[in-house]
Amino acid sequence: MLGLFSFGNAFAQKPEISVDLNQVIEPMKPIWAWFGYDEPNYTYMKDGKKLLTEISKLSPAPVYVRTHSLLVTGDGTAALKWGSTNAYTEDTNGKPVYNWAIIDSIFDTYVKRGMKPLAQIGFMPQALSTHPEPYRHHWKPGDPYNDIITGWAYPPADYDKWRELVYQWVRHSVERYGQKEVESWYWEVWNEPNGAYWKGTREEFFKLYDYAADGLKKALPTARIGGINIAGTRTKGAIEWTREFIEHCISGKNYATGRVGSPLDAVLFHAKGWPRLVDGFIRMDMAPQLQDIRTGIEIAQLYKQTRDLPLIVGESDPEGCAACGMATNPENAYRNGVMYSSYTAASFARKYEVATRKKANLLGVVSWSFEFEGQPWFYGFRDLATNGVDKPVLNVFRMLGMMKGNRIQVRANRMVALDSIVKNSVHGALSDIGGLAVTSERSASVMVWNYHDDDKPAPDETVALKIAGLTAKKVNLNIYMIDKNNSNAYEVWKKMGSPQQPTAAQISELEKAGQLSCVSSRKIEPKAGSVSLDVKLQRHAVALVLLKW
């Protein structure tokens, strides 16, 4: 039974949302507590550490972090869509030389904060690549995307050395962090092998996976590995790729061992939306993203060997290029303000609903959004913070971190039905005014949003919210808000005149404005076990109504 009931769709109808704390669906997994980014060297830099500390504190469960380029050759200099660790080189005789210093500094940053790596085995070290030159790219926003595809994207010249590299890495990780810690991680091989990231054949990728998995399991038999983080999951080609990969892991000949099958402890795939400019304004589209998630679940459930495995959406975002700012991609201007935060709230509610409907073991949904060190303020990158100042979208995750317990059913007369939003997103006349609700022994919370795909002004709407099933005689009520006036450093920055060199006082003001704002706090007495209140929402606002007793 799903958490959404629709009873009416009249244009003038006042939005109404009601929840009953006794109508439990299932425990609320922290599927949102997963993040990722292209540039691994940002991890241990000033603003990277600051943001990771904030992310680690907002979640009641350990946060998982995924990043590219952990095996790429280089001196560790960070750049857009580039990173390196120099983990593997060879001496003049072709003998492997391992150097874990930079990888350690990355994983140390996570582990010290109680975070967990979703450790990506990739990309190809220069000394192992079948096409080692050119290797280092110098891509910048506006350049052709394929300019980033260089020697790191090719198969290994020696698969035995590739396997040994993975073995040595995992063995080192166990020695440094302990077996129990590394057993709590997930490992995966490569990224989007059906796209630009892999310059080999499909069979060569299966061979790459087999050798990596064999090296990992030899170092730590209980380590967990998965794949394949396919791009465009809903498309015909991606479906074929994913099915062939799963079938290879189930019954194919293992290239590394000669036996049947290959280890597969989780199924990973990607999901992306599609914003664009329509008549000069931004129009979002979450339908492709939700279709990708639905398709990934359906593929895994085709096979008895994978239908109950953990499913991880390795990247789940409104579109594909985090480092493509609004100067070169004006459709990405949604990222600075509340359109990104309301999209995130509305889409995560549907991710939960898709998983519930499909009875899927959806473990994690990676938001491919972090920070870009030393870049212009509010440049329109897909990031959670800019120069150490949090964007409104991070406050949605703060709200999700406050929602503990069991998900409960939500009745909402203006919440777009799941089938409709998966097919058409929210392109119609009405906005999507919906809710996500949870309850625990001493608390209840309802996240409410006012979302539309179109970035156009619209009148505020007042939601009549009713929370029933309360047994306490008095409750503490707090309402948190993300809108143009609250939890929004971007609007404050614009009022400052959009400075690219803000003063220390201005930065302090921006940091404060970037935190989650409580707009109402009081004690109330439920009547007949119910609380009713009006919540006024601007277009693209997100509110969290939190009750404690």
TrEMBL record:
Keywords: Glycosidase, Hydrolase. Residues 17-514 form the Glycosyl hydrolases family 39 N-terminal catalytic domain. Pfam families: Glyco_hydro_39 (PF01229). It comes from the Bacteria. The keyword Transmembrane helix does not apply. Belongs to the glycosyl hydrolase 39 family. This is Beta-xylosidase. It comes from Mucilaginibacter defluvii. The lineage of its organism: Bacteria, Pseudomonadati, Bacteroidota, Sphingobacteriia, Sphingobacteriales.
